[in-house]
Q: What sequence folds into this?
């Protein structure tokens, strides 16, 4: 049975970067869809804001659909770096119980993670209004951000409770400053012949030049249309969307970034 590394990390903790590093190893590969979101099903939220942020689980597509996302032979480890598994931990553990799985978690400072995440959402997932207004208008969104803030502590409790499962914990700071050491800590060795490319997929803070374009590309219509496509076609469509989004971004601090940062400190961390 193929071994899987499955992420329990929050978004904006370096999952894309870690996946890109590990996929350079001869023993690891990424799926043809960046984030399969396979091991959970979820009811659609009544909160319009959360609908624009969260992706629907793909468990109903079946095991064969998921396994075919990894085209290499069974001796290659699959890397599933989906960033919504942390919201469905119990469901995930149940549905991976008969698989050879190691759970990867990248821990990042909660304040830095939230600030980076809000900046990311400004690319087209959320309205171009202040974060304070969004939180005050959508209680479910505030609860979601609070869950993120407390995730590191919850993960520690989960790990202590599930001694029968295999977990690997990675420091965000160690990952970005010493990626080679991080790879060795996960795989126990470096099985790549030649130098590792550490310049891959480091997401920079940015904001869209044309916000309406990104809003369209991240819309529910585009998402639902994409889910109707076969896996290989969908992966190409996602790559195309990613290229368009990237070309529409201007490097900077992100819209309302300083205001959002101050609000996050006040509302979630009780800092003046």
A:
């Amino acid at each position: 049975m193929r071994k899987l590394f499955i992420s329990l990390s929050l978004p904006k903790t370096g999952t894309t970067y870690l996946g890109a590093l590990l996929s350079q190893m001869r023993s690891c590969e990424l799926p043809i869809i960046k984030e399969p979101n396979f091991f959970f099903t979820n009811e659609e939220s009544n909160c319009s804001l959360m609908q624009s942020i969260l992706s629907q689980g793909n468990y109903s597509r079946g095991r064969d659909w998921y396994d075919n996302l990894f085209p290499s032979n069974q001796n290659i480890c699959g890397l599933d770096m989906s960033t919504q598994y942390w919201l469905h931990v119990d469901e995930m553990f149940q549905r991976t119980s008969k698989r050879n799985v190691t759970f990867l978690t990248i821990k990042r400072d909660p304040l830095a993670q939230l600030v980076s995440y809000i900046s990311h959402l400004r690319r087209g997932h959320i309205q171009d209004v202040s974060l304070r207004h969004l939180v005050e208008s959508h209680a479910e969104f505030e609860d979601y951000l609070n869950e993120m803030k407390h995730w590191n502590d919850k993960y520690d409790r989960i790990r202590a409770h599930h001694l029968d499962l295999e977990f690997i914990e990675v420091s965000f700071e160690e990952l970005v400053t010493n990626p080679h050491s991080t790879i060795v800590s996960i795989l126990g060795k470096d099985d790549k012949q030649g130098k590792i490319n550490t310049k891959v997929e480091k997401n920079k803070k940015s904001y869209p030049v044309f916000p309406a374009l990104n809003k369209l590309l991240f819309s529910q219509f585009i998402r639902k249309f994409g889910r109707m496509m076969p896996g290989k076609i969908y992966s190409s469509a996602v790559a195309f969307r990613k290229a368009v989004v990237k070309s529409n971004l201007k490097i900077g601090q992100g819209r309302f970034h300083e205001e959002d940062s101050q609000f996050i400190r006040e509302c979630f961390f009780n800092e003046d």
In short: The CA atoms of residues 172 and 192 lie 22 Å apart. DSSP finds 14 helices and seven strands in the chain.
